């Protein structure tokens, strides 16, 4: 089993976040190191983990500083991957919304460092994935046949809500839902068919809302092409990982729209501690066949599967 949702937090990244005034989504930044991560993986039967940078990414206002931090993160990950004997893979960090710097980093991370894919956030500022602003990034990712992990960011509109619930509890899956639907409505999946998108947290609300999305073709003539079969095909193109979502209600909705071999395992470690990881492992085991998880992992990460 491969865990596709594990975040790394080296000291230099925490320092950059603190200097930028970016507070953690929890009460404090969780502790992380490669040794403890591998020990946790061994306890729960995880053969390899694909590392990614978590929210808020690496861009805190200066595109030049963001490019330098993304490069340092990616080279740090490449060193971990090389030393791990197959236990780690990595999604490249990008300095988006800086387009040109991100294009250079994609080429460096995939072509030179040979990382296993690219990490994108569901939204950057006011714009969601799928927006035409990100077309150059999609074109380059498609040319590489890249695996892309979509993690929520927390849209500015969500941050202004007067809710007691923290962003990660409610607004993060909504952020992912909006981005995934925007990718569908802007026909990104059809225009760039070689990109393999993984949606975090079981795709947010997307599986549950799929009948409502398909009903648009029956309600509004502007969306008459968005038929049930079109929506079903689009949802079947995504891959999904069920971090923080490994219960029967969510997995039941997910498996109604996704083939079992398009569902991977994700833990959200270390933001989700070991008790949460144990619950997710148990929840996935009751609903998803281990062989299907292996097939999905082999399809997307043949180097790690080997």
Throw out a few tags for this protein.
306 residues, alpha/beta, TIM Barrel, seven-stranded parallel beta sheet, two-stranded antiparallel ribbon, 49% helix, globular
CATH topology: TIM Barrel
**Whole-number tally of structural domains:** 1
**Structural class designation:** alpha/beta
What is the arithmetic mean of pLDDT? 90
The biggest beta sheet reads: 7 strands, parallel
- Shape descriptor: globular
CATH H-level name... which superfamily?
Metal-dependent hydrolases
The number of distinct helices, counting runs of at least 4 residues, comes to 14
Can you walk me through this structure?
This protein has 14 helices and nine strands. The strands form two sheets. The chain has a seven-stranded parallel beta sheet with strand order 1-2-3-4-7-8-9, sandwiched between helices. A two-stranded antiparallel sheet has the order 5-6. The protein is globular. The protein is of the alpha/beta class and 306 residues long. Helices cover 49% and strands 12% of the residues.
Compile the SSE list and pairings.
Blueprint: E1 2-7, H1 11-19, H2 34-43, E2 48-52, H3 63-83, E3 88-92, H4 99-112, E4 117-121, E5 123-124, E6 127-128, H5 135-143, E7 147-151, H6 156-159, H7 171-185, H8 188-191, E8 196-199, H9 206-219, H10 228-237, E9 239-240, H11 248-257, H12 274-287, H13 290-300, H14 302-305
Helix pairs in contact: 3-4, 4-5, 9-10, 9-11
